Amino acid sequence: MARLNDNYLKLKAGYLFPEISRRVNAFCEASPEGKARLIRCGIGDVTEPLPPVAIAALRGAAEELGSRATFRGYGPEQGYPFLREAIAHGDYQARGVEVHASEIFVSDGSKCDCGNILDILGPDNRTAIPDPVYPVYADTNVMAGRTGAMTDSGACEGLFYLEGNAANGFVPPPPAGEKLDVAYLCFPNNPTGAVATRAQLQAWVDYALANDTLLLFDAAYEAYVQDPALPRSIYEIPGARGCAIEFRSFSKNGGFTGVRCAFTVVPAGLTAAAADGSRVPLHGLWGRRMSTKFNGVSYVVQRAAEALYTEAGRAQTAALVRHYMDNAAILRQALGQAGLTVFGGENAPYVWASTPGGVPSWDFFDRMLREANVVITPGAGFGRAGEGWFRVSAFNSRENVLEVAKRIAELRP
Ligand code: PLP
Q1: Digit-coded pLDDT (tens) for 290-309
Q2: pTM, two decimal places
Q3: Could you tell me which of 281, 303, 295 has the C-alpha nearest to residue 61?
Q4: Pocket around ligand 1: residues whose beta carbon is below 6 Å from it?
Q5: 33 assigned to some structural domain
């Protein structure tokens, strides 16, 4: 008898986005007029075409594969040196941050990396997850059997929640008097758009070093940080190389959500404890994991990612980010003028707003769908602390964003 992984049965039936699709599809079937007017600001997927440098690099690399002299088969599992060097230099060393090419592991997505990292971590870690946050951290811990049951509200027994709220600006501090083994952090945050200041991140690094906590820092949206005083990498914080892994992605800066390319940084000296108490470098374990369960990102895609680091590539990705950030400013203003409390949208492509009168976020989702024909993301889908809030994604065309702003202004009070 084949037994299944019972941990999957603990998951809430609908992951957030399938449940949104279910409701949107039901609405579209019931209302053809509503369907025709529908604007999706729900899923955080990019809408604008790839930068021209990436297209040219994809074409050039595809041509290379068409000739015996330049054909390439399996590449190095950790990524081609040309891309790892470009990342180490462009994202870190040029900004005065110490990260070496050998510490970079290229992958096909941060979603996979955030989940796969559990392969090299023990089953009994006391793990903290921000609330609200990208649901993948909690769900992958459930799947890997690192939690107890999931309650109706979506909380998992066995996980420690770091509550973000209006009072702390959605940047939860390290918990006083609590000892954590692993803590996920996500800045700029999905869904709130909050970004930790240097002092706030330093507090986390100090806590991690004092408590032997491993920080899993998800910087998928770092390119959206506009304020030069705000950190874009955990490694800008002294001490972070001794306590943090960083996840980054080309999905949101280069528009690679469909192309698929990301990377994880595991500093050479970063260790965790083995069962016998000895300290073992995580770099070697992650390398072993990747070379056993992964065969690398395609050559053409890595060439496209490399192209983003050229001068033209930088200008083109900056223009993409500018486009979405201008959208975010329009949405922020519209939601603020509607009398809602608004966070995010200044250093992140997400605007986070309170529901009118504090109504439950799924009720407001349904109302926006029915009355404005706009798809938003209910805050409750990102954790209990997201209840009473909703996320609007700035990943859209300008035309759609202006129309959404107009419809928000027209909503009945
Ligand atoms: N991390 C966060 C916080 C995200 O919001 C997302 C995607 O929305 C990802 C990671 C996934 O990135 P990728 O497309 O590289 O898998």
Answers
A1: 999 999 999 999 999 999 99
A2: 0.97
A3: 303
A4: 44, 109-111, 134, 186, 190, 218, 220, 249, 251, 257, 262
A5: yes
